[in-house]
Amino acid sequence: MNTWTRRGLLTAGTATGVAALIGAGSPTRGPEPLDIVTGEDGFRAPTTAAAGAVTFRVRTTSTRTGIVGIARLRRGVGEAAFRRHLRDVFEKKNAQDVIQASKDLMADAELFGGAMAVPGSQSSFTAWLPPGRYLVLEYKDFEGPRVGRDPLPGTEYVSPLLVHAADVAGAGRPRPSATVIAVDTKMGPRFVLEGRIRRDRPVRYVNAMRGQVDELAVYPLTDDSVTEADIQRFFQEPWSAAPFDLAAQLGTPPLSPGRSAVLGMPLEPGRYALTSWVAGMQDAQHLSAHGQVLIVTVP
Question: 142, 251, 288, 299 — which has fewest CB within 10 A?
Fold first, then answer.
């Protein structure tokens, strides 16, 4: 198995999350979105938020940053352990070591997803956050020098976020035009699309996998001849030529099982590949190598 990939490896843990799905009804007026700006020159993130459906806008000024996520440490877990285990997920070479590091990580924290952004545009995500203490983090800081800034351990971009009780829970929910669901099937992991993805509407992503964290990595396809089978082969052999521009990645970093997020992505009309670099518990291979690939067309 190739031990290095463009995104590294992230696998499932033993903990599961209680589903807290964001509704698709008519939007109600709520708090203004919170801004996160990440780059090689610094990281700016909010320190407080009201509980409920919280929307974050994400911008990056560098290709070495731009995968921002939200995590909540479990009781008794320190931030240093979480940082160490997240680094291990991407740095370990042996498949069983990767799986163990991911088990440790999932025992450390609940993952609420986030947004993947590229320089020159803005992405957003909405997560349902109960009151409590959270971490806002830059995933690329943990993925090594070929992907991110490669900061020293303990100096990665990680910022505390305190979520306090709100007077009106659920206010400000954006209305998605489509839902992408990560599911288990007899043929392996798959994405199921409900509705139609549109460039001017957000997309809900739901991780309905059993005991498996999962992400949604979205890439524009400029070659009309590329098929889902071509993309699956690439994930099976990620050292080969990519069928899309890896630097144009949008979507969300991993969510724990049962979690959902609503994503605002700067999409243009055209074909897009829905993929996942997350690796499974059985063999530490990317889920897209097992067939979790879906090509969609945005009108």
Answer: 299
User: Do residues 220 and 244 make contact, with C-beta atoms less than 8 angstroms apart?
Assistant: yes
Q: What is the C-alpha to C-alpha distance for residues 115 and 242, in angstroms, rounded to an integer? A: 22
Do β-strands 158-164 and 48-50 pair in parallel, antiparallel, or remain unpaired? Answer: parallel
- What is the residue-wise DSSP string for 222-264? --TT--HHHHHHHHHSTTS--SS-GGG-EEEEEE-TT-EEEEE
What pLDDT score was predicted for residue 172? Answer: 55
CA 293 from centre of chain = 15
The residue written with tokens 């964001």 in the block is 22
Given the structure tokens 């829905």, which residue do they identify? Answer: 274
pLDDT digits (tens, 9 = 90+) for 126-179: 999 999 999 999 999 999 999 999 999 999 999 999 999 976 544 556 689 999
| β-bridge partners, 266 | none
The domains found in the chain, sorted by start residue, are: 34-298 (2.60.40.420)
pLDDT in tens, 65-81: 999 999 999 999 999 99
**Ramachandran quadrant class, 155 (left: phi over 0; alpha: psi -120 to 50; beta: rest):** alpha
Q: What is the 3-state secondary structure (H, E, C) of 156-189?
A: CCEEEEEEECCCCCCCCCCCCCEEEEEEEECCEE
Mean pLDDT of 61-67: 98
Q: Tokens for 15? A: 């903990």
Q: What is the pLDDT of residue 173?
A: 62
Q: Are 120 and 57 in contact (CB under 8 A)?
A: no
